[in-house]
Amino acid sequence: MHRHIRLFIISAFLLLLSAGVSAQDVSTQQQRREKLEREIAIIDKQLAANASQSRSLDNDLVLIRKKISNRKALVADSDRQVRQYSDSIYLTNLAINRINARIDTLTAHYSRLVLSAYKNRDTRVWYMYMFASENLGQAFRRFGYFRNLSTTMKNEATRIKEMKEELRLKKERLAVLKKEAESVKAERVKELDRLKQDEAKANSVIKKLQKDKRSYQKQIENKKKEINKINREIARIIAEAMKTDDQKAKDKKKTEVDMKLDAEFSKNKGKLPWPADGPVVGRFGKHYHPVYKNLQLPPNNGVDIALSKGSGVNSVFEGTVTQVFVMPGYNQCVLIQHGNYFTLYCKLKTVSVKAGDKVKVGQEIGKIDTINSQTQLHFEVWKGKTPQDPETWLK
Asked: How far apart are CA 94 and CA 9, in angstroms?
């Protein structure tokens, strides 16, 4: 008996917990899936543009591998959902079995009440039963029993009806859960098929790259020189801005606003909004070629974010536009100062701010450009003269 009670309490608790977690996680899971699918759509557009224009196999491989990463995340998400549905189905079945057992108990009790009422339908039998009591207390109890028998029967009938309604709702819920679980499983199968297709494309690109290693090595060396030159120029521009700032400090003209921005920017590490919505296809730091493992790629002082054509680019924090300049391969760039910190936005087609402008968090500063069939924002964060990994600053 005690074992059944414990099982009932545990199953009821797990059912409530499962319902709570499910309700809490559904929105987050849906948002994550939508984000992954949006990124895949952006990548597909860029791959299509590459196919119809000047093709860059290196860039294609990066994009395809990012797609594969997103596909795997979607499959993993589907696996989690399937497990959650399995748990919910199991717990709902437990609840259904518990309700069925309770209905059986109530029905048996109700049958005994009906039988008792039938046997005692003659009021003379009632009086004889009460007069046969051993004492007055027992007589009163027997009188109360007969008086409440009708009410008890009605209450029991109502409880049985309510339990049957609860059972009906649980069975409906079970049917919905099973249908949703099947839908998720079907989508997972489709996602695995797409993943295999993407992996086959990646292998195809790798084979093409392996055919002409010497040519690609030369291209990468030239690209490395170009990027190093760009990085030096950006470092020089920021150093010039720092000199101006240092001069202000010497002249005691550095405002309280500058110092406040510096402190506020630092406090918001890991909380800054993204400058645009898209997948990161180029990460901070030094990396090696995905095919030629011993070949180091040009260093990246920021991140590269793939975007849809014409996307707006926003400031990640309030500050002052220090400079707007053009750089070969990066087109228009905007440098914004936030106290002792700087953010840099490159590969813009149009710019809607100028040097000296004050900008707010989330304010659009320009539109993205498409350069060599790549629609990618290059974004950097600097602390003084030192480049930072932007992903550690963005939420």
From this structure: 11
Q: pTM for this structure?
A: 0.67
Question: pLDDT in tens for each of the 395 residues of the chain?
Answer: 444 444 444 445 444 444 444 555 667 777 877 777 787 888 778 777 766 554 567 778 888 888 888 888 888 888 888 888 888 888 888 888 887 787 777 677 656 655 665 555 444 444 454 445 556 665 556 555 555 556 666 766 777 777 777 778 878 887 887 888 888 888 888 888 888 888 888 888 777 777 766 777 777 778 888 888 888 889 898 888 887 665 555 555 555 556 677 788 989 999 999 999 999 999 999 888 777 777 788 889 999 999 999 999 999 999 999 999 999 889 999 999 998 899 999 999 999 999 999 999 999 999 999 888 789 999 999 999 899 999 999 98
SS3 category, 351: strand
Is there a single domain that holds both residue 78 and residue 180? yes
- Position of tokens 């606003």? 257
**Residue 270: inside a domain, yes or no?**
yes
Q: Which of 281, 307, 272 has its CA nearest to residue 38?
A: 307
Clarify whether residues 191 and 292 are in a common domain.
Answer: no
Residue ranges making up the domain that contains 157 = 2-210
- Give the Cα separation of 203 and 195 in Å (integer): 12
Same domain, residue pair 201 and 256: no
Query: CA 171, 173, 176 angle in degrees (round to 5)?
Result: 110
Whether residue 14 sits in one domain with residue 158: yes
Question: What CATH number is associated with residue 347?
Answer: 2.70.70.10
C-alpha closest to that of 379 among 268, 282, 303: 303
How far is the CA of 306 from the CAs of 44, 77, 331, in angstroms? 11, 23, 16
